[in-house]
Amino acid sequence: MKQGKIIRVAGPLVVASSCLGAKMYDMVKIGEMELIGEIIELREDLAFIQVYEDTTGIGPEEPVFLTGQPLSVELGPGLISSIYDGIQRPLDIIRAKEGDFVPRGVEVPPLDREKKWEFIPLVKKGQEVKEGDFLGEVQETPLLMHKIMVPVGLSGKIAEIKKGKFVVEETIARIQTGKNMMDVKMFQTWSVRRSREVHERLMPDEPLTTGQRVLDTLFPLAKGGTGCIPGPFGSGKTVVQHQLAKWSDAQIIVFVACGERGNEVADLLLSFPELDDPHTGRPLLERTVMIANTSNMPVAAREASIYTGMTIAEYFRDMGYSVALMADSTSRWAEALREISGRMEEMPGEEAYPAYLASRIAEFYERAGKVVCLGSDNRIGALSVMGAVSPPGGDLSDPVVQATLKVVKVFWALDDRLANMRHFPAINWLLSYSLYVENIKDYLNTKVAEDFISIRQEAMQLLEEESELQEIARLVGVESLSPRERLILESARSIREDFLHQNAFHPQDTYTSMRMQYLMIRIILHFHHSGMNALEEGKSLDEILKLEVREKISKMKFLPVDDPGLLESYIEVDNAFKKLLQKKGSREDNV
Amino acid sequence: MYKEYLTVSNIVGPLVIVEKIRDVKYGELVEIEAAGGFLRRGTVLDISTERAIVQVFEGTVGLGVEKSKVRFLGRSQTLAVSEEIVGRIFDGSGRPKDHGPQIIAKKMLDIIGSPINPVSRDYPSEFIQTGISSIDGMNPLVRGQKLPLFSGSGLPHARIAAQIARQAVVLGKEEKFAVVFGAMGITFEEANFFIEDFRNTGALERAVLFLNLANEPPIERIATPRLALTCAEYLAFELDMHVLVILVDMTFYAEALREISAARKEIPGRRGYPGYLYTDLASMYERAGRIKGKAGSITLIPILTMPEDDKTHPIADLTGYITEGQIMLSREIHRKGIYPPIDVLPSLSRLKDKGIGEGKTREDHADVLNQLFACYARGKEARELSLILGEAALSDLDKLYLKFAELFEDEFVRQGEFESRSIQDTLDVGWKLLFTIPRQELKRIRPEYLEKYYAEEK
């Protein structure tokens, strides 16, 4: 292996000389301890290296080993249920080997080298295959059929295909390409900074349901879409991210905890094995890959972590699955970028972030999408990306937020005023938006209810009217509003409290099916319409608001999934108003 | 013997630049002997083949370019630990300050430490009863949590921290308990307040103190919290103790960091603080926690005074992003003469959900907590409204909420400095206040609890 020599060490940045021949983003090993680093700048024979581990104890004159390979991840059976650090080292294995703290310079292969997987071939000898075609499959977990694909750039005739139990390093197929014979193993490697190739990109047109009412009904994300959740601390970003990881109807979840709290990662790790996927009833862990680079772990590895996660997510997408990637939080990633940039003494842009911040963010989100995967069967895969952003002081003019909003299509604005009122999820319904509503309109109207989009529109409008009326009420008092306007306020309040407010820790409330969401909002609006009607008929607002069925409405969200009680509530609203209208007396009599 | 260098070329603020060095490592501990013979210590911040930049803990006053002897010690800064450390007082660099002997080291621990493997972490879930209603009831603290006090100048954060240290218990358990106290840049009087309070309550015998006072070198403050946390890790994960770490005042720590960054002419981030402030703070705060299979725990309460009570100030802001919530003190409540002046609305405990409820505190805790929050928030809104329009303009319901907000501050938040309320009492006070609100308004409480507790009163 070629060697360079360290000439400078400044925190996570190391400069080495005599590195001619090194390439940008090549991986290197530093010093006697062989710490892992990556080349981020080359000036003649000098290489500037960001180091993924603490550099204390490293000094000039020590060697730098050039591997000549870019920083890569291993892709193959064994990924699911794993927990990796930012450069794909399995943290559970490190713990077993090294104890409760993460030491430096440990080298552990990302995929288990000893575990045998049952490989079932899907092709026959003599068959022509091209890149992306399935060679076979491995039942990795009960939830996931891991497809073994022909590596990118390879095509030819199958010369040999095996069947049986193998470890990931064994050859399972041989492919004749021209004059060469290529051995194919169950795993492949891929550079993290290069997006995996696809056949064609498509427009997202299906919703990614999450069971979170405010998201699914008001601001839906599409499968293959991108969304961001910016908000100040304490506004519930992480809980929303966890809810998404738990309840999204994706087949694979990749969760990147990037520069966040260790205890939160522990929470995910401890709760995922116990939580069941609402769609299949199996533990959620069986469809999850976790990347955890907590805030106290080395900063350069944090920078790499979101790429590691993204590459793994793309790999599963290539199998034709719907994958969702959550990154919490991209601000920490941007800060890592800033820190390294500062150490390199680059000319700073806004808030000392490097000038290339916006292009890096755009590149990252652009790796999401609904695609036709490589392979002859033209299968479709989708990769949806949701990034949390933690702007300082919740200030949305922060460069990371602004650069993110330029590329993502869904904006879930967290509001600490709502969080203070313990309205969770604290997503502001006036500021947030989703640009996917048009794309997924047909899907929702055919699969959920034909009037879904119009109902949603009406709910949004009520909320909008509420904010205007509140403004007036604040100036002149609630008393000066007409009964109709006050009913609008009450109905909007009901939408907020009985529908949008959702308790992530309540066993029933934590997840609501699309059908149920539709019924709930439908019932609230039904009450509103009937109320308006009753006002027309001369009933007083007080009479309407005193109807007992309102308590039923406020308890709707605690009903189990698809409980028939919901439909009953609808009928009860009907009956309550019928009774009210039949009652003798009119507004005049009451006055 | 160490090689001595007489090649100091520049001295800039707290930094000393040494030329023509060999075999020096990043992060190495350095001793500098000034012309007068007295010793100073520092660490290597930046190293190249020609020169090393050394950050001097005790400041560079009295150091000259000539005649300063520099020795590189070949190791990073360490702390000597043994069981004997409990009950001792040290200065900000870890030297005994109580006229006692040096600690005979059972172990020398690197003060930077290694990150806890996230896989090894156990999720904090044991409720700590602090006896303060606005914390226990509304933003409960659990073992292994890091929960800062966000304060301002002139607010009684020291008294609250001392009260927590005095009263904190885990229900139904008798365990080895210790307090580690790290002071950065606070005055003698403030430090003395803690020492006296620990002494009077007998807590001093199970406490370890690291004191860097206002008149002591600011750069030393970089090491002080790390010494405290290294000591805490030893007590918690090797001696199985439950350690409460109090760090005061993180603002001064961050300012010291800014000083070094400015001296190195680094590109500043917000308000002149270095871009790596987040990472730096995280490398300390994240040392709190629990580890699977170990009996001990580290619970961390950093205290910081927000300049101009501004919680978007970088120190408060970044702290809030790392810690698991915050206890916010309010000048407005303080002015009303209410102790402790905790504003529960912007306060938050992120780990409460697994620490409360049946078997931990009481089944209705979560619901009562949410309901109190909602009612108090509504009451405060009503209060604002009444300021603009007059109380007469409020609806009857809003008047009830307004009254509720007053009662809440007066009966729930207000309590004595030496009054320790059990969690049962705290929840009962909460219910008493909720009875003033009509039952159908209490939407955050599950019907079965409403049935059980609301009916009880009638």
Share in β-strands of chain B: 15-25%
Outline the biggest β-sheet of chain B. Answer: 10 strands, mixed
How many E strands of chain A? 26
Q: What percent of the residues of chain B sit in helical stretches (DSSP H or I)?
A: 25-40%
Low-confidence stretches of chain A: 586-591
How many distinct folded domains of chain A? 4
Radius of gyration of chain A: 28 Å
Number of strands of chain B: 22
Shape of chain B: elongated
Largest sheet of chain A: 10 strands, mixed
Sequence stretches where pLDDT stays below 50 over 5 or more residues of chain B: none
What CATH calls the topology of the largest domain in chain A is Rossmann fold
pLDDT averaged over residues of chain B: 90
Q: Which percent band covers the strand fraction of chain A?
A: 15-25%
Which structural class fits the helix and strand makeup of chain B? alpha/beta
Notes on the structure:
- The complex is a heterodimer of chains A (591) and B (458).
- By secondary structure, chain A is of the alpha+beta class.
- Chain A has four domains: 2-70, Elongation Factor Tu (Ef-tu), domain 3 (Beta Barrel); 113-186, OB fold (Dihydrolipoamide Acetyltransferase, E2P); 200-428, 3-Layer(aba) Sandwich (Rossmann fold); 452-590, Bovine Mitochondrial F1-ATPase, ATP Synthase Beta Chain, Chain D, domain3, CATH 1.10.1140.10.
- Helix content of chain A is 34%, strand content 24%.
- Chain A is built from 17 helices and 26 strands.
- In chain A, a hairpin with a 4-residue loop joins strand 3 and strand 4 (35-43).
- In chain A, helix 11 packs across helix 13 and helix 13 runs parallel beside helix 16 (565-582).
- The longest helix of chain A is centred in the C-terminal third of the chain and has 25 residues, at 452-476.
- The radius of gyration of chain A is 28 Å and the shape is globular.
- Chain B is of the alpha/beta class and 458 residues long.
- Helix content of chain B is 33%, strand content 22%.
- Chain B is built from 13 helices and 22 strands.
- In chain B, strands 9, 11, 14, 16, 17, 18, 19, 20, 21 and 22 form a ten-stranded mixed β-sheet that branches. Chain B has a seven-stranded antiparallel β-sheet with strand order 1-7-4-5-6-3-2, with no helix packed on it.
- The longest helix of chain B has 25 residues, at 365-389.
- The interface between A and B is large, with 77 and 82 residues.
- Strand 1 (2-10) of chain A pairs antiparallel with strand 5 of chain B.
